[in-house]
Amino acid sequence: MKSANAIKIIIILILVFFTFTIAFPDYLNSGIDFLNSKLKLGLPKAPKISYKLGLDLLGGSRLIYEADLKSIPEKEKNEAMSGLRDVLEKRVNLFGVREPVVRTQKTGDHFRLNIELPGIKDVKEAIKMIGETPYLEFKEQKTEEELKNLSEEEKQNINNYFKETVLTGRFLKKAELAFDETTYQPHVLLEFNSEGSELFKEITTRNIKKRLAIFIDNNLISSPVVEEAITQGKARITGNFTVEEAKKLARNLNAGALPVPITLISQITIGPTLGAVSLEKIVKAAIIAFILIAIYMIVFYRLSGFFAFLALLIYILILLTLFKVIPITLSLAGIGGLILSVGMAVDANVLIFERIKEELKSKESFSRALEIGFSRAWPSIRDSNLTTLIIAFIMLIFGTSFVQGFAVTLSLGILISMFSALFITETFLKCFIGTKLEKYRRLWT
Fold first, then answer.
1. Is residue 399 exposed (0-12), middle (13-18) or buried (19+ Cβ within 10 Å)?
2. What's the whole-number average pLDDT of the chain?
3. Which of 78, 185, 216, 255 stands 20 to 30 A from 390 (CA)?
4. CA-to-CA distance for 351 and 345, rounded, in angstroms?
5. pTM value?
């Protein structure tokens, strides 16, 4: 029994060392620098991993775009939004934004993208870069019957001579700059994925000897006549391009042609000073909450409360380490979830200690009181935490980004809190089985 508990203590000590090293590497590195300077040991330093701070803590900008899905079939809208999110993630990553967040959101019949750009200073440039992501589409020539129905005013716009097809930039595999072998005029070669190749084949097959128009951001770029069905999934964009224009178009298409058009509908900028103030306040609140909880536990549960306090410290170290390693974006709401989970961790200890006190008062031995206390408190701990996890899961699925940050840290905190209460605290208390201190009931009741 004692040997098994000794092994658990060793595991806890190793866990404390590694989590402290990751959470607070500067303290360990200071010691390593001292040893290396005195003893010339050449010890390696612990790696530094930064916390991933959200927009409200680091400062930056939030852009909200609305997607135009009117030409997309209902069953394909979610897939189109996923493709749009992937394209814009790639786009803002190319811009060099630190830890950007791009989320899709549906409000009624409106599909939107919430783009968070932490630490961004030139939001106008970011909007420009995202807006330069082109919307590529192929349109086929309207039939004679359809053209007859055009009004005189509509006939003045060449765009009205073509109608939409399902082939857009979301089926694009790659784009590259090329030159005409005869005129040396620059153009852009397109290659579609397997699904796009089939669509292109179908479109060119039914439009032989007709024009197939290529539009980028609703502007006609080229309208070549289809001489034969194209089965290899390749096309060419020609126009009065300079080399730089063709190169830029190819680069932007490779960065990701938009599967659907988007419109910027909201822009919010949060200054880094406001973010720093928010972070300072939330950290101060967390420290105060932790100190008050520690005082409460020690006053009401004495030595048991002290070891619950130690377990709580380890719990904090584990969470901080996971936040860095996973990593998890820390927002004001997320830290709020963390503070709440600390209360949940203490709640589990309170249930256990109350059961132990009851057993000790009924003259049970210390070891038996521990065994009964942990086993009988477990159903209550399990049920209370499970119901909270279910609610957090619902918030994670259906909530906005603000609510999701709260749900993630709360869920992770609850899971680690059960480990803290049922493994770490129990291991500490079992160290006193068979010792003189177990006989001093005032230390435990």
1. middle
2. 84
3. 78
4. 10
5. 0.64
Q: Residue 392 CB: number of other CB atoms within 10 A?
A: 24
Judge whether 183 lies within some domain.
yes
Question: Residue 279: helix, strand or coil by DSSP?
Answer: helix
Residue 253: DSSP 8-state: H
Question: Does residue 335 sit in the same domain as residue 248?
Answer: no
The answer to whether 259 and 85 are in contact (CB under 8 A) is no
φ, ψ of residue 221 in degrees (nearest 5): -100, -45
Distance spanning both ends of the chain, measured CA to CA: 24
Answer yes or no: are the C-beta atoms of 49 and 22 closer than 8 Å. Answer: yes
Statement: residue 19 has pLDDT above 90: yes
Cα dihedral 176, 180, 183, 188 sign: negative
DSSP bridge pairs for 266: 64
Does a structural domain hold residue 258? Answer: yes
- The answer on pLDDT for 197 being more than 90 is yes
Quick one: what percent of the chain has pLDDT higher than 90?
18
Q: Which of 269, 288, 310 is the last residue of a domain?
A: 269
What's the rounded Cα separation, in Å, for the pair 315 and 311?
A: 6
Domain boundary among 231, 253, 269: 269
Residue range(s) defining the domain that contains residue 403: 271-443
